[in-house]
Every structure is written in structure tokens, then in C-alpha cells.
Amino acid sequence: MQLGIIGLERCGKTTLFEALTQSESDPARKGEVRIGTINVPDDRVDILSKMYNPRKTIYAQIQYVLPGARDAQAKSADAIWNPVRTCDALIHVVRNFEDMGGEAPDPAKDFSKLDQELVFADLIVVEKRLERLELDAKRGKKVDPEELDQLKACHELLENDKPIRTNPDLAAAPKLRGFTFVSAKPTLIVFNNDEGDEAMPEVPGLGEHESCMVVRGKLEAELAMMDPEEAEVFLEEYGVTSTARDRMIRRSYELLGKMSFFTVGEDEVRAWTISRETQAVDAADVIHSDIKRGFIRAETMAYQDLIDTGSYAEAKKAAKVRLEGKTYIVADGDIINFRFNV
Ligand SMILES: Nc1nc2c(ncn2[C@@H]2O[C@H](COP(=O)(O)OP(=O)(O)OP(=O)(O)O)[C@@H](O)[C@H]2O)c(=O)[nH]1
Ligand SMILES: [Mg+2]
């Protein structure tokens, strides 16, 4: 899962990126794209790893992509958006703290400003493509009517200042995937609050449609630099019950409709990330295309059943291990042993 971090100047993107990835910046590389990979903490993986004592334990991973500072870049929209075009989702950071110059935050205005930049960037792409298709039609070249319709629908939204993600069907349309529209990406809006402030700011129009959360970026960045004991005291002091990192991971999974299944063994205990409603045969494909090709059965057990019975053998005795076919819809926390033949 890859998430791009965007936001206006000085909203706290780098601070948040560093808190999430526990990394430090090199001021000399201000213009460069940074990518940080983190393991997704999962108690279930920890417990499975204790049970199986494998040679390797592999957690699910999330990648955060931080484009270089906007003011250090060429001002072209391409330079700004290209690094996040291939991301699965965006994290839009909005300043909600008083900046160093003493300027009060205006999160509603800032959110809308950048959101409109996304809209504008896509509008340019749509218009170019529509012009092209029109020209093709004139020259007697075949034009895909579905693509044309969908692009027109995008155009209509964008012209009315609406991001493509406001129409989920359009945002997910396979014919449009190649355009990597930035306003079509699932977006988590992250308000970056001052240390002492936990409140979600009022932003008219966001309401139920958008996925929003509050973090305290600077506090989280300090936290990320502490050793565990220090961090515990600090967390208590500020009344933080779970870190921004954990909350953001949870929200990212929700936003993208993702979940995990596990494979276990003496060699490796591993978490795999898949979309909700994934069939067993496609879950197999995430591991290896050969397993999909030679799929016979998915030997499946719920994580909780393994914990309740205490071991694979006991779970089997209690008839908790099922043999599922290709179209079985994998559940969050399933432990799967794929039987295949290639
Ligand atoms: N009070 C407060 N200050 C913050 C917070 N987050 C970031 N800052 C400060 O705001 C300034 C900008 O933060 P950065 O993380 O560099 O912001 P940025 O979005 O990466 O900035 P550019 O890359 O220059 O656009 C820094 O001085 C941070 O210390 C916060 O949550 N609270
Ligand atoms: Mg920065």
C-alpha cells in the first residue's frame, strides 16, 4: 500500500512523514522525493510468530511518499504531482497550528486551496484528452465511446470544482486508470493541530463524504524520537491513547478497503494485504501467480479459532480447519495454507 503525502507549504508534511517513518531529514535534499517504508504493527502476527517460532516474520508494509518541498521545485504541476501519481491514496495535510510568523490557521481555506489544485491538474489532463479524441473522431479514427463518456463526466465534475473522488464509480473506472487522476484518489484529510489541541476543526462541506482525522504532528515527531519508556510517560502526559502512526494505518486500511490474511509455518509467518471481498484464488495470486494457476484448495482457519484451540492440530480436531474453493471470500485474519499443483 503506497500513500502520498501532500499539502500546502509549511503545513507539516515533512514533520508528519518523519513521525510516521521515524526518519530524519537532510536539509541538503529538500527538493528530493522521499520514500519511507514501515511495518504495519499487528498483534496477531506477533502472537503467530511466538507460536511458530519461524526463521522469518514478515509484517504487512505501508510506503509513504513525500514529494520534495514545493518551493524547492519547478513550479510546474507535473513536478508536484508526478511523485504521487502511482500512489493508492493521498494523505492531505492541512495546517491547523499557528505558524512561525504568527499567522492563525485557516484549515477550511487551506484545504480547499490544495483540493482545487488537484481539480485543476486533472482538468488540464481531461481537456487535453478530450481534444485529442475529438480530433481522432474527425479523422475517422475509432473513439472508445465509454472512455469518452467517462471523460465528459469527469469534465463536468471538475468544471464545477468537484474532485473526481466525489463520484466513486467514476474514480474507480478501469478505463480511466491510466490517467492517474490525482483528484480521483481516495484521500485521508489530516488536520495538523497544535500540541494542546485535539479538536477537529470545522470545515464546511467536508462532513460525511470525506475521511478526516486530527494529528498533532510536532508532538508525534518528538514521540517518534523517544525510547519506549520515555514515550509512555509522554503519551500519558498528553493523553494520547494511540499514536498518529497507528491511527493513520487503521484509517488507511479503512479508506482503501484493505485487510490482512496470514500464512504460517516454521520457515515464515507472514501478513499479506488484500482488498475486502477478495476471492481465495486472487489472494493466492498476491503470494505467487503459480499458486493462482495451480490452485486446488485453500486450507483455511480463522485466527481466533487457532488462538482458542491453541494449535493447528487441535483446531483440526475441532473441525475448525476448512477446505475452501477458488471463490471463497477471504476474511480478515484468515490463516491460509494454499494447496496447489504446478
Ligand atoms: N506548532 C506546531 N508546529 C508544527 C507542527 N507541525 C509542523 N510544525 C512546524 O511547522 C514548520 C513547517 O513544518 P514542515 O514539516 O517542515 O512542513 P512542510 O509541509 O514539510 O513544509 P515545506 O516542505 O517547506 O512545504 C516547522 O517549523 C515545524 O516545526 C505542529 O503540529 N504544531
Ligand atoms: Mg517539507
From TrEMBL:
All copies of domain TGS, residue ranges: 257-340
Protein name stated in the entry: TGS domain-containing protein
PANTHER family for the chain: OBG GTPASE FAMILY, OBG-TYPE G DOMAIN-CONTAINING PROTEIN
Gene Ontology molecular-function annotations: ATP binding; ATP hydrolysis activity; GTP binding; metal ion binding
Keywords on record: ATP-binding, Metal-binding, Nucleotide-binding
Annotated Gene Ontology cellular component terms: cytoplasm
Species of origin: Desulfatibacillum alkenivorans DSM 16219
Pfam families: YchF-GTPase_C
Transit peptide recorded as keyword: no
